[in-house]
Amino acid sequence: MGDRLLRLSITYLGDFTWNSVSGRSVGLKPVPLQSLSELERVRLQDVAFRRLLRDRDLGCHITIPKSHKPKKSLRKKLDSLSKEKSKDKETMPQVFGIPLSQVISNDRAHKQRHDPPREEHSDPTELMLSFLQLTSSFKRANKELSSSTSSLSSTSETPNESPLPSTPDAVPRTRRRGGVSVDCITDLDDNQSRLLEALQLSLPEEAAGNRKKRHDKKLSLNPIYRQVPRAVDSCCQHLEKYGLQTVGIFRVGSSKKRVRQLREEFDQGWEVHLDEEHSVHDVAALLKEFLRDLPDPLLTRELYTAFINTMLLDYSDQESIIQLLIFLLPPCNSDTLQRLLCLLSTVAAHADDSLDNEGQEITGNKMTSLNLATIFGPNLLHKQKKDKEFAVESFARAEESTAIISVVQRMINTYDTLFMVPADLQNEVLMSLLETDPDVVDYLLRRKASQYS
C-alpha cells in the first residue's frame, strides 16, 4: 500500500520531466556515465539492450557481455602454499595478460596495502548514515510506542524484549559498495535525506572505493569508484604530460628491454612512478602491450560483430548505436575505454602543427584519429587469439579490419559525447524502476536535482 501511494506521488510530466514526492520538478539532462549509480548502470545495460533489439537490426546476435569476476579464493590458496612455492606466488602477473576485472581487484588490494590504515567509521558518509538511521529508528520506535500503549499494557512482555533497535544492527547496513543501498533510504525523512545527499555529493569520486565492501547482492545508489587499472591510468597521465608533441607517438619503436622492465615492475606489484626520465615511446608501447595481452579484448568478443556491423548503418545512426553498445559493457571495460579514448582524442587534437602565444611554431605529433585507430583498433576489437588461421589474410578479413579501424576512429572523434547518457535513456531507467522501487526513483530524482543545481 505504501509503495502504491509513493508511486502515485511521483509523477512523470512528459518531456523527460518528473515531479518528486516533495513536489519538486526535475528535468532530466545528459549526464556522464560515471555519475550514474551502480543500480542505474545495471538498469542502463538492460535499457540499452532492449533499445538495440527494438530499434536496430545489426544482423547479428547481441548479448550483454558477462563480467568476469576475479577469483576470490585465489589469495587464500596462494597463502596456503608451502614456502618452497613462495617464489611462484611472487612471480604471478598482477597486471598483464590477466582478465581486466582481476587487474582492478589486484589494484585495490595494492592500494589497501600501501595506504595508511584508517580507523573504523573514517568515511563520513558511513558515519552520517549510521547516525541518521539510528535517529530515524528511534523516532519510528517512539511513534509505535506512543500509538500502541493500550495494546502493550495487555500483552505480556519480558523486560529484555525491548522494541528499540540496537545500535550494532544499524551500522553494518551502511558498509556496502558506494554507501547507500536500496533498503535503507526509506528510513530517512526528507531533511535527513537531503543532508545525506549533500554530504555524499561533496565526497571525492574515489571515496566509494575505499569503503569496506560486503559480499551481498545489494546495488548501490551512489556512483561506484572508477574502474581503471593503475597501469593504464599511469601511462595515460605520463603521455598527456610529456608526449603530446612527440612526433609519431605510438608508432615509433621503443626499447624492448626498458618496456620489459616496466612491465615486470607493474606485474610484481611495485609502486611505479612514471616521470620525465621515462621515454614516451616506452610508455606508449607498454600501454599497447596491456591492451594487446588482455585475455578478452576491451570491447569484448561478444560484441565484436555488433561493433563491426555499425559501419553498415547510415552515418547519422552510427554514433548512437556505438554508444548503446558501449553501455552494454561491464563497468571496468567502459571506464577503461573512456580513459583510453580521452588520451587518444587529446593526442589527435595535437596532430597538426600550431603556433604558441608568441607566434612560434609547435610541431604536431602527426597522429590523427585515423592513424591512432589503425594502431589501437586490432588491440581493442578482435574475436579470437592470434594464431595461424587468424594470420591468413583474406578479402573478408581485410573488410573487417577496415571496419574495426572505422569504429575506433569514430569513437575517438566523438569521445566528448560518447559517454554522456542522454535524457531519454535515463528516463527509461527511471520508468523501469518506478513499478518496483518508487522510493529509489524519488531518491534518484532528488540526487539529480542536487547535482544539476
TrEMBL record:
Biased composition (Basic residues): 66-75
Record GO biological process: positive regulation of intracellular signal transduction; signal transduction
Region (Disordered): 65-125, 142-177
Biased composition (Basic and acidic residues): 76-91, 114-124
Domain of life: Eukaryota
CDD domains: RhoGAP_ARHGAP6
Keywords: GTPase activation
Signal peptide interval: none
GO terms for cellular component: cytoskeleton
UniProt KW Transferase keyword: no
One family name in Pfam for this protein: RhoGAP
Domain Rho-GAP residues, every copy: 219-419
Annotated Low complexity bias: 144-168
MF terms (GO), sorted A to Z: GTPase activator activity
Protein's UniProt name: Rho GTPase activating protein 6
